[in-house]
Amino acid sequence: MTSQKGLPPTEKEFKRRLIEEYFMYGSVDEVLRKHRWGLPISYAGYQRILAEAEIVKTAGPNGRLSEILDFLTTLMEKNIPFDYLYRKMPLSFKTSAATIYRILSYIKEGVTRRLATGLIITPFGNNKRVLIGEDVSVSRPELGKPFGSLSIPMGFSKKTDPRETAIIRVLQQEVFTRQAIEGGMPNVIPARPKPFMFLDIADVRVEIFHITLPKKYSNSKNFFSYKLKNYNFLEIDNLGKLEEKGDGFRVGVMEAITGYQKYLGLLERNLVFNPLQLKSRLNYFLREEEPLPFR
């Protein structure tokens, strides 16, 4: 690890690079592995640098969840036998058939085991425009998963996390990564945040929060991460038309936005309500129930 001029980095540059690579590769173990364990810092020392920079650690195997969701979505969309699809998977597919069967059983029972956090982020002065980015995780052509599926910021949480911590993790990982690296995370989380919606995707319950950005952070040029790219604010009234044209959304995203539309409607009527509870269309299909319409 050297500076841009080819010289050994200063201590500040070294720490900054360690934080940046943590976001690039997703864990301390993976960064050390990429450098063949040759970095001049111990595992504990690396963790201490992240803690001093107030980086919220990742909370789960996001890549493995994406793999499972892609598989289950293909089952739903192509309506083909489980065994036939599983045999077509390449060697890079790591999830066992037993694990997927177990998740299918949880879905049929209506059980959620894990927790995630999703963010509906709107710009200053317009609560009908929602921040969307293109998912730049590895494409899976064998599952029909295109590169760049549209997504809201979303990721695993720990059940012991305060909600503020869960939200900060998603903001650092998927929205304000540059600011997290530089040590200037914007304060955009509302006081005592409460989810407006619970959305079940496979065996994961996603708590979804609404965040309105201050004017200074409402330009898409402020957003950067290693998980999403090409950020844009999309009008929620146009999202149904986008899907009809074939624009790809990550599983659960359309349901999250539909729930947000219902939430806005309840606010306009000045109603006090508990968080909405929805299941993804994936869950409806795998439970052999009739899914609710998007509109």
Short description:
33% of the residues are buried. The protein is 39% helix and 16% strand.
Helix content: 25-40%
Q: From the 3D coordinates, which CATH architecture of the largest domain would you assign?
A: Alpha-Beta Complex
By DSSP (H or I, 4+ residues per run), the number of helices equals: 11
Strand content: 15-25%
Summarize model confidence as the mean pLDDT. 88
Series of H and E elements: HHHHHHEEEEHHEEEHHEH
CATH topological fold name of the largest domain: Nucleoside Triphosphate Pyrophosphohydrolase
- Radius of gyration based on Cα positions: 20 Å
What is the count of β-strands?
Answer: 8
Overall, the morphology is globular
Instruction: Give start-end ranges of low-pLDDT stretches.
Output: none
Structural class: alpha/beta
The CATH C-level class name of the largest domain: Alpha Beta
Major sheet characteristics: 5 strands, mixed
Spatial order of strands in the largest sheet: 4-1-6-5-8
What gap, in angstroms, lies between the N and C termini?
52 Å
